[in-house]
Amino acid sequence: MDYDRRMNDPAAPRIGLDVTQAVKRRGRGIARYIRQVLPAAPGDGLARDLFIRGHRWFRRGLIADLSPALRRRWMPNPSRLAARDVDLFHSFGNHLPRQARCPLSFTVHDVRALDEPAGYEGKERLVRNIERAAGIVCLTDYGRNRLFHHFPELDDTEVAVIGHGVDHDRFHPLPESRCREAARAHGLERPFALQLGSWFPHKNLELSLAAWARSRARREGVDLVFVGGGAPNDYLARLGELGRQDDEPGRIHWIENVSHERLPALIGAAACLLQPSRYEGFALPLLEAMACGIPGVVSDASCLPEVSAGLWPVAGVDDVDAFAAGIDCMVLDPQARDAAITGGLRYAAGFTWERSAQAHDDFYRRVLAQGGNR
């Protein structure tokens, strides 16, 4: 039986998958997760339909290339799943219909709305979904443990830990010449430490700025680069003020747009990756850097010690000296650097989207086997 027929086998249990958050021109986060895990699905014994909520249906052409053999279905009313032939409905994001004829499951990307409700929106929706879901996917053991901390009564719910994968076709060690070319295309001539991701307060860019300013690596010619963007104006002004305290203008670089094609080479050009966040759901750039053969430093917040697996130095979210020492260790200590690179390459190799997709299939089957009971 060929792949297209297996994925649409009328006798197989039918899984409805909410892919609405992938319907966009430039997808990060959840959109990227959907675009990676769906094509990697093994397709054995499960049929899949892709559901699109509300007005996004009229832009469905943006995902015409996403598993094109699978049927697209419209949910004109996002709060109601009218389909009668779906055995399980899974949302890859924090959106579940309030009315449905089948069990529901969804992916919890983080529980920040529960841990930090004063500074994060979405708590009510997340709580409502948790209370109604027959199955929940968490990205890390940390996330699962925090979920049970807030909802100890989830014992009768299928809660699985399924990590993301790494696109190893893109993220792998590249020739030094290609990495240098990518760096120079962005005006980077000196060695640099790199922080990837949005410029939001919880990403704790302040720690990177302060630790780099105090590091020996800076004094020996290593610059600091931030790739991302999207900072609120007041936060961006505060970061700019912190950056201006450096006595050598031009040593801190802010880059908002790096092409999909150039990003792996830019990562490969970095001396090390900095991940000082106060909260993360998974921190995939950490594994992508490992797969590129780059070491790094992480904070001790949320899942970062778990995802870095003890391979990189860990520092408190406000510990400037410890984070600076971590930078110096990964940039200037050849033995420690080589150990981090070797261990990171081996560790990241175990994270694939095929493995993640198979784990999703196993999860769907367990929820179906339980009958969707809560």
Which features does this protein show?
single chain, six-stranded parallel β-sheet, 15 helices, 17% strand, Rossmann fold, seven-stranded parallel β-sheet, alpha/beta, elongated, 374 residues, disordered N terminus
Number of strands: 13
The CATH class assignment of the largest domain is: Alpha Beta
What class, by secondary structure content?
A: alpha/beta
User: β content, as a range?
Assistant: 15-25%
Number of helices: 15
- On the 0-100 scale, what is the average pLDDT? 91
Give the topology.
Blueprint: H1 3-7, E1 14-18, H2 30-37, E2 47-53, E3 71-75, E4 88-91, E5 104-108, H3 112-115, H4 123-132, E6 135-138, H5 141-150, E7 158-161, H6 176-185, E8 192-198, H7 205-214, H8 216-219, E9 223-229, H9 233-244, E10 252-255, H10 263-269, E11 272-275, H11 284-291, E12 296-299, H12 304-308, E13 314-315, H13 320-332, H14 334-348, H15 353-369
Parallel strand pairs: 1-2, 1-4, 2-3, 4-5, 5-6, 6-7, 8-9, 8-11, 9-10, 11-12, 12-13
Helix pairs in contact: 6-10, 7-13, 11-14, 13-14
